[in-house]
């Protein structure tokens, strides 16, 4: 009885961590949308938990920000009050990450003392801790890419790695929590659906990379039209770039690819839903299988609204486009997690 009870507590703790990590990614989105990501030019994992506490410290932080290209070429009009606004979001983003560490570490120690963990749980927990620490390091490497005299924003490639690494961490935590709490009787066996789900998840992961490319390159406002791309089906400036540059650096091609993958995912998930409806042997699967189809409809609509409102972007203002972009990111994350949860429930015949 104690094992069941302790397992439930550990699982809920893991799921709280999943929710906190989702919030962390959303805070990262707000940081990016408000142009706040480069406001803190130092990485102090311990002492950085405290913001500047007096006017002298604020002036020093502001002077450090004034040395980088983003201030010189975009925000040279900033007052100290403007700087404090963008500083807050980056500071809060980092503070929340530290808070997640505390929420992980203190219960971890308590559960060890109370012997809540089964032996098999220790390795996944250590991996979670390492992945969390690594995510912080990846975040700083990303920030450093914009702390110079040339780049006004962080590298979109590093931004994408930071985002997808966060989703790998969240997905791993979700699977771990499900493994603790979901009884084997709730699982189903279906080889074709398992393989199909894996294909969709792989394609969705590619889409998440391109979504981050879109964000990092501010590519939405390049073509704020739908269903056409500035009146065309296919972008016309591909000859100006090499194949690699088109795939990873040409904002218009990246925009086109992101749209195209969205359409493919939309169709694939409708087909997946039709196949999953035929399976009714698990009450948990009957519930979970509804989420991907609902979320993909919402995701596509939010993507379209984000495009159509991208021309209304005002630097330093959190308006309708920013809300659409944030909801679009959240729904994409939830779609991935819904598919991951379904994948966990589906087994294959040996």
Instruction: Report the sheet-strand fraction.
Output: under 5%
Number of helices: 12
Secondary structure class reads mainly alpha
- In order across it, which strands form the biggest sheet? 1-2
Major sheet description: 2 strands, parallel
Please provide the count of β strands.
Answer: 2
Helix content: over 70%
Low-confidence stretches: none
> What is the C-alpha radius of gyration, as a whole number of Å?
22 Å
Structural account:
The protein is mainly alpha-helical. The chain has two domains: 1-181, no CATH class; 186-350, no CATH class. The protein is 70% helix and 1% strand. It has twelve helices and two strands; from the N terminus they run H-H-H-H-H-H-E-H-H-H-H-H-H-E. Strands 1-2 form a two-stranded parallel sheet. It is flat, with a radius of gyration of 22 Å.
Keywords:
12 helices; 350 residues; two-stranded parallel sheet; mainly alpha; flat
Entry summary:
The protein has 350 residues and is mainly alpha-helical. Helix content is 70%, strand content 1%. The protein folds into 2 domains: 1-181, no CATH class; 186-350, no CATH class.
What is the strand and helix layout of this fold?
Blueprint: H1 2-33, H2 55-65, H3 69-73, H4 80-113, H5 119-144, H6 156-181, E1 188-189, H7 191-217, H8 243-248, H9 251-276, H10 283-288, H11 290-309, H12 320-345, E2 346-347
Parallel strand pairs: 1-2
């Amino acid at each position: 009885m104690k094992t069941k009870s302790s397992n439930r507590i550990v699982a809920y703790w893991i799921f709280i961590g999943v929710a906190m990590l989702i919030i962390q990614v959303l805070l990262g989105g707000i940081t990016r949308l408000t142009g706040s990501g480069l406001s803190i030019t130092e990485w102090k994992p311990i002492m950085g938990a405290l913001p500047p506490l007096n006017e002298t410290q604020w002036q020093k932080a502001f002077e450090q920000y004034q040395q980088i290209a983003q201030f010189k070429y975009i925000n040279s009009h900033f007052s100290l009050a403007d700087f404090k606004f963008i500083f807050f979001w980056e500071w809060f983003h980092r503070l929340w990450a530290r808070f997640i560490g505390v929420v992980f570490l203190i219960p971890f120690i308590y559960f060890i003392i109370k012997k809540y963990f089964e032996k098999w749980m220790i390795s996944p927990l250590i991996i979670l801790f390492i992945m969390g620490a690594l995510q912080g390091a990846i975040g700083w490497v990303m920030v450093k890419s914009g702390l110079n005299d040339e780049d006004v924003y962080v590298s979109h490639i590093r931004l994408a790695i930071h985002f997808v690494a966060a989703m790998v961490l969240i997905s791993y935590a979700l699977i771990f929590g499900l493994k603790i709490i979901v009884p084997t009787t709730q699982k189903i066996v279906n080889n074709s659906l398992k393989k199909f789900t894996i294909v969709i998840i792989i394609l969705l992961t590619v889409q998440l990379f391109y979504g981050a490319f879109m964000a990092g390159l501010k590519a939405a406002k390049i073509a704020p039209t739908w269903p056409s791309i500035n009146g065309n089906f296919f972008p016309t400036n591909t000859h100006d770039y090499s194949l690699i540059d088109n795939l990873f650096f040409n904002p218009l091609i990246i925009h086109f690819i992101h749209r195209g993958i969205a359409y493919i995912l939309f169709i694939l998930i409708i087909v997946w839903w039709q196949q999953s409806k035929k399976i009714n042997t698990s009450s948990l699967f009957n519930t979970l299988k509804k989420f991907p189809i609902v979320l993909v409809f919402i995701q596509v609509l939010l993507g379209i609204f984000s495009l159509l409102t991208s021309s209304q972007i005002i630097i330093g203002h959190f308006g309708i486009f920013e809300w659409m972009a944030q909801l679009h990111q959240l729904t994409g994350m939830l779609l991935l997690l819904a598919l991951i949860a379904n994948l966990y429930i589906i087994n294959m015949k040996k």
